[in-house]
Amino acid sequence: MKFIPIYEALTIKAQKNSPPHIAFEEVLESERRDSEWARIEKIKPVNLAHEKTSSAPLFAKRVELPAMVIQKTSERILASEALPLSAEREEEVNNTWIEQLPRTQAVRLQEAQRRSEVLGQDWQGSTWSAMAKETLEKSGVLNPAPEKTNVYVAGAGPSGKTQVPKSKVYFPNESQGRTPSSSDTSATGGGEMLPSYGLAGETAGAKSIVGPLEITGGLAVTNEHHIEIRRSDEGILKELGSVDLQQGLYNIQVQEPTGSVIARLVDKDGKTLGEGSFRLTHVATNQAERVSGPKLKIEPHPDFAGIVTSAYNAKPTDAAPAQTKVTFVKGLSEVAAKKDGFVSMDNVTKGSSTVMRAAAPRHMQTASIVVSGKEFKSQLYPDSMIQALQNIVAQQRAQSFEGAPTIIWGKVALDGKNVSGIDVVVESDPSLQPVYFNQFMIPDATLKTTSENGLFAFVNVQPGFHSLLATRADSIFGYQNVVVEEGSVAQGDIESTIKSEAVPLRVYDAFTGEARSATVTMQSLQEDLEVKTGTTTISLPHISRLGMMRIQPEGADYVAARYLYNDTDAFIHAPLVHWSWLSSIKSYLRIDDAPSAGLIVGFVPDEDFEVYLAAYDGFESRHIVYFDMQGRILQNRKGIAGGGFILYNVPEDIHEVVVVGARTQKVYSRVLPVDANSLSVLNFRE
């Protein structure tokens, strides 16, 4: 099997009015003017042959001319004056050389001066070579790699012998550059990693992390795939690593033990097929320059995917009820469950959230909040089972339940094992009494906490967005957010774990990046958190779930807002916005006031985009405002990378805000409850 090396394209950006760009344009203009000879060469010669005519034949005489040689002698122009001059006189003297140019060159210079003002430019700036070198240095390509750290893709040479190419970046007039020699293409055996001159490099103070690499879940590397190893620190990609597919190893040089090491399997179209990562806090902090890293597993990149089963199903295959249908993003995707109950929605970014709704004949609909990137497991409850639950609870409490059922049903678990002795409450409605089940799966009014099966339920719940809180001995055990609908069961499984991670939290001005002080309230924390310097580190349980936090900035300049996060996030960023900024845009665009509505502000750093509210066609397009990275309004009705959007007058409801990337066409979705006169801030970063 042969592999093809894939290199990232080099992009060098320059302003149109910068001297290098102007000089480059002038060279192209010169080539366009000199293209007349190329046009003449394409003119077909005239056929002078004669056929079937009575005219006399034409004869040609060969004429040989001596070769003509054109030479150009450079003329050095001396300054005509040496005494100090005024600014006007100095400019006049300095431009006297223009009069000595040939007419065509003088006309060309005048045209260049009219278009770009080349005579007034400072030509002491960076050259194209220097700009390219700076770009490559920032990407880490120029750092020399350590011995035995890279994998090269070999090909057969003309002699049939295997050849291994080596990369080299060369810059003119750079004495320390290494010129490739003929030995650079020699083959090495034994499956060892080869030295590289264009991949991850070993620099002073860097630490080399080497560990096993595993590709699982049916993934495979072909000629159209490649593996990327990078360190990511708070969303910024830094050092580049390498892999050895023969030995199953990865290697990366890191300057700082912060962030995560991410491995991605990417196809030729840039789509991520599989991903794996580990946080650098897991690597032993010793003084050695080379340390052993944990196993890095590249697994299929799940979007919205999981299993739907029946609560009464005793089959070992966990088959779903017949004709089970599942919808995601409020009907944007509707799929039929497979025989094993598997359902999925593709082309969704990691970390997106949605309300998954599952339905089957003779079963109650189940609604649960799911997060992409982790497979979920949900259950369908037969109508008879729900009716029996309501009847038993009605008898125990001496009350009746009228109307369509509104049920919350869940289970408490610690690292996958059911937990007893847990008290569960609905924070948004403390008056609701929990129902706990005994070992025979029967509601037991004498139980005040969960039994060994960890099951609980709430009946006759008001429809809407609710937060469940599980406690033990007055300490938080876990939480879960649910969406309750009429005629539906809200799946509210509460998970906990003994594994926790240190996560950086930053509170800052959305447009200046200045750190700001604030009080942070998070579902994962027992107490409010005072962030005095705008930056802190918190410990969160490593569980993938939708969480909410409220940030109250210090002072009256910024607006208190609700933010969404995931406990498994590698970092949490909370950008603050000014109320004056929101109100001034609203006044400028003459958007009406709606006292019972809320505001949503979103930031999209990765690509151009469009935004809408899922299954809400009545939302007026003029209430959607796009802005750039400085907060300035965009007029083209589309968002740009690094900017964001504002949704004014969003009605009170449980909404799903959907952002569609212009380049990837991927769906970014966020489940969000909107209250009257409230501000919600969303980050759409994968």
Give a quick rundown of the structure:
The protein has 686 residues and is mostly beta strands. It is 12% helix and 35% strand.
What are the salient characteristics of this protein?
nine-stranded mixed β-sheet, 13-stranded mixed β-sheet, mainly beta, single chain, elongated, 35% strand
Polypeptide structure, described:
This protein is mainly beta and 686 residues long. The strands form seven sheets. Strands 12, 13, 14, 15, 16, 17, 18, 19, 20, 22, 23, 26 and 27 form a 13-stranded mixed β-sheet that branches. Strands 3, 4, 5, 6, 7, 8, 9, 10 and 11 form a nine-stranded mixed β-sheet that branches. An eight-stranded mixed β-sheet has the order 30-29-32-33-41-35-38-37, with no helix packed on it. A hairpin with a 2-residue loop joins strand 19 (406-414) and strand 20 (417-418). It is elongated, with a radius of gyration of 34 Å.
